[in-house]
Amino acid sequence: MSKSISISLCMIVKDEELTIGRCLDCIKDIVDEIIIVDTGSTDRTKEIVKKYNSTIYDFKWIDDFSAARNYAFSKANKDYILWLDADDVFLSEDMKKLKELKTSLDPNVDSVTMKYNIGIDEHGNAASSYRRNRLVKRARNFVWKGFIHEYLEVYGNIINSDISVTHQKLKSTPNRNIEIFRSKLKQGIEFTPRDLLYYAHELYDHNEFEEALLNYNKFLDDGFGWYEDNIRVCSNLTDYYQGEGKFEKAREYAFRSFQYDLPRAEACCRIGFSYLCENRLDQAIFWYELATNLKKPNDSLGFFNEASWTWLPHIQLCVCYDRLGDHKKAFEHNETAYNYSPNDHRVLYNRQYFESIGLKKSNDTAETL
User: What is the reported pTM?
Assistant: First the structure.
């Protein structure tokens, strides 16, 4: 039987009294050391943290998340370092998986990725997610890069686990990131392609679309971006032009995303939606059906919208076939959507509609009343 690894939990925090206890409660019996780096809390964060047999360090905030995280990592003493934010948790099933990983991990592994569920739908299921290097070997001295939207630069023997970290946000700091970016610009800091990307994301999120689009196109045209980032930029640009009703322009960017990797269900659903809005139903059906047949690249570190890979194309195919008068096919796609999301109000509404026109579920087939 392999020896259990030891784990240091490293966190950077500031004014997290609403969530820090919840986070530490789920992890305190799994990790062997808790390192907390406080960047200027004025609430009860430190008082709460002290209850968890943790070591607290103060770090002057310099508008640089990587600097704070690297300082936290420098204080770790155990075999591996696990990092979390204060509003992250491990749900009960993932706690069990992490405990099992701790006793079974090959010590030759340098990094373990975990799925990061950053959006939860109304039914408690993961709505959007991506992978992050979450548990890393301390002896490798991996370094955080980037003053904001930082990333941990890892290499070597990396494995993808089936463990998830779930983001449960309670408070919002909507202007913090864009203010940091603008401060860096005033200081004359030269942005890397990644900085440019995330500055564009912030502009987009703040509805400053003209400047966001300029920076997005510069990012794509410069050609230095990671392929997953390129795909995400194409998605945002597609959504922008869809919202403007410029469907042909929207499709240009959805198709452009195919240059960077195999087609993704998200892009296919966006293309399908553009054709549906134009009532070009045969084209819409083609792209939605393609979305249902794609294999999700589970080893990717990119962002994924779970709906696009599960129920969404089916409920849209239901709409398309119903408009064409093929109610049986429409019904079947709605039932497939139901199997993925049985409590979705749209699916349930459609079920009532189909029953009203004489179709209902019977032995996994459509039965005419």
Answer: 0.89
